[in-house]
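In this supplementary section we document a worked example of the pipeline. Step one takes a protein sequence of length 122 as its only input; no multiple sequence alignment statistics are reported here. Step two produces a three-dimensional model, which step three serialises into structure tokens for compact storage. The input and output of this example are shown verbatim.
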Amino acid sequence: MATRPLTVRLFLTLIIGLCVSLTPGIAKKKPPAKPVNINTATSEELQQVPGIGPATAEKILQMRKSYGAFKSVDDLLAIRGLGPKRLEKMRKYLTVGKPAPAKSGALPAKATLPAEKPPDKP
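The serialised model returned by step three reads:
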């Protein structure tokens, strides 16, 4: 009868060990070497930051797309599910830099088009 609790304990230890090893989300990720610019980062780059998973990364990208560049890391507090405590843990891995230039077909403000040549008179 004394072996039964030991067997159950070993079985549970084995199951728990398997669950932990097969669940990558439980393992701590290695933080980025340098702070991630929230105005230019991709989803993959944002997910390198401890505390940011795929869902939060997508919320950050959507907010940036909808409202424009972030002025401060504190702007992330407007994201549902991201509170002050969580932000403080992530803050040292985040930075706000210049946003990426817009990729559009528009000409830069200082660009001028070449003047048309007047038609020749007959």
